[in-house]
């Protein structure tokens, strides 16, 4: 039997205007190793960037992992814990904002054993501050 990989993941999204240019950041930690991921979009929303950070972090995992996921997004936290099961049971009603991302996240959540933790943003949590810095740095500049 192979040993399960235990990963810590810290994610954040940022947007300059809402909608506007936005960025996302993720920090992944496994057995003393760290990897940082980030990216951005020219026209997006803060909530889309929060979801994208989680999605890109989980998608970067090459095999099933136990993931301790930390986010400052109540949108992501409540969506996963309170709404996702109901949306699926109702056949994904069209009124759901960011449905494309929620479906992608749902698929990834089934591939991993994820425990989601909410942390207060901009409250001195070192990894959350780093994920925020990655997200802000990835916001495309207006041209």
From TrEMBL:
EC number: 3.1.26.4
Localisation: Cytoplasm
InterPro entries: RNase_H, RNaseH-like_sf, RNaseH_domain, RNaseH_sf, RNaseHI
Gene Ontology CC terms, in alphabetical order: cytoplasm
SUPFAM superfamilies tied to this protein: Ribonuclease H-like (SSF53098)
Pfam families for this protein: RNase_H
Quaternary organization: Monomer.
Name under which the protein is recorded: Ribonuclease H
Species this protein is from: Micavibrio aeruginosavorus
Gene: rnhA
């Amino acid at each position: 039997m192979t040993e399960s990989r235990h990963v810590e993941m810290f994610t954040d999204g940022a947007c300059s205007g809402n909608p506007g240019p936005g960025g996302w950041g993720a920090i992944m930690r496994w057995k003393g190793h760290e990897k940082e991921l980030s990216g951005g979009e020219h026209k997006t929303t803060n909530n889309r960037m929060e979801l994208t950070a989680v999605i890109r972090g989980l998608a970067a995992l090459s095999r099933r992992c136990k993931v301790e996921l930390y986010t400052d997004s109540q949108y992501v936290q409540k969506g996963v814990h309170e709404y996702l099961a109901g949306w699926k049971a109702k056949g994904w009603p069209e009124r759901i904002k960011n449905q494309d991302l929620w479906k992608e996240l749902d698929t990834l959540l089934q591939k991993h054993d994820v425990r989601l933790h909410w942390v207060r943003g901009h409250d001195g949590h070192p990894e959350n501050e780093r994920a925020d810095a990655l997200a802000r740095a990835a916001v495309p500049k207006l041209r």
